[in-house]
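In this section we walk through a basic example: taking a raw amino acid sequence and producing a predicted 3D structure, encoded as discrete structure tokens. The instruction is simple. Fold the sequence below.
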Amino acid sequence: MSFDDPTRPPRPGEEVDADRLGAYLRSVRPDLDGPVEIAQFPSGHSNLTYLVRVGGEELVLRRPPAGKKPRSGHDMHREWLVLSALRGRFPYVPEPVAYCEDPAVIGAPFLLMRRIRGLILRRDLPDGLRLSPERFRTLCERLVDVHLELHSVDPRTPEFEALGRPDGYVARQIEGWSRRYREARTPDVPDFEEVMAWLEANRPPERGVSVIHNDYRFDNVVLDPDDPLRIVGVLDWEMATIGDPLMDLGASLAYWIQADDPPELEAIRLVPSNHPGAPTRRELVDRYLERAGIALDDFTFYRVYGLFRLAGIAQQIYRRYVQGQTADPRFGRLGLAVQVLEAAARRAMVGEEI
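The resulting token sequence is shown next.
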């Protein structure tokens, strides 16, 4: 049985010109010469992602969505730099193949990488995959361990230093996401002002400097379909940078909706974090901190930050939908997700949950 992510013909308005792409590939990578076939992976919420078959090769093409983008978002060049820098240092990154910033080719900058075949877990386990509670817990623990493995990569190289300056990372994230949320806010979502003020007032000291992914979660991880407890790839590096690893852990934890969470959180769950055997958020944090050798009594700030940041990402996408820059019907529900995340952040601020 195949667990590969399904593809479909590109959505109207999101087509890629196969002839122009083929001509570009022949000019920069003649070893990839051959007929070009293009299909779209329909499941993403951010960049547009395509499967490109060239002769006997399978590539993945990523490009920004149409419409106005946040200044620091959908950065294909950043993703290219990260993949190139991590090759040989972190064994889970896809092999970068080409980066093109000329919009004359397909209408936007784009990145090509070799496809990592495997299983990607979405909201629920796919039909045909059975994992006992014990095995699923082991997989979740390995997910944490690979995250920590990334944070153990030495960032003190010219390639990583080009991604940004780590000093003041926590403050810049609060200021930056507050600004982006205010710019993207629509009248039908909360203003988040109390949450933003709380984050500013409770900023912790920096807890170290690491290479951080900034969107590490189950559906950006590729599993070996013959051994689904083995992680073989980590995808979606457009927001990776150098910064505080606990901020990265907090960002990831925002996606971890556990079995005893309120129904409104369950409604926006994207990954199978409520599957029998799944650790709680507290257990995930404890495993990470113990293995990282970090003593931390209170994770509340990072939990609130992760929820706020996720709301900011959702709101930027929702605003594009409201303004008619995308017709993807999934995005029309993100305004409700922003409301749910604001309520969860308020509960976390007063210690009602981690």
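Looking at the output, two observations stand out. The chain has a mean pLDDT of 93. The two ends are 38 Å apart (CA to CA). In the next section we compare this with other chains.
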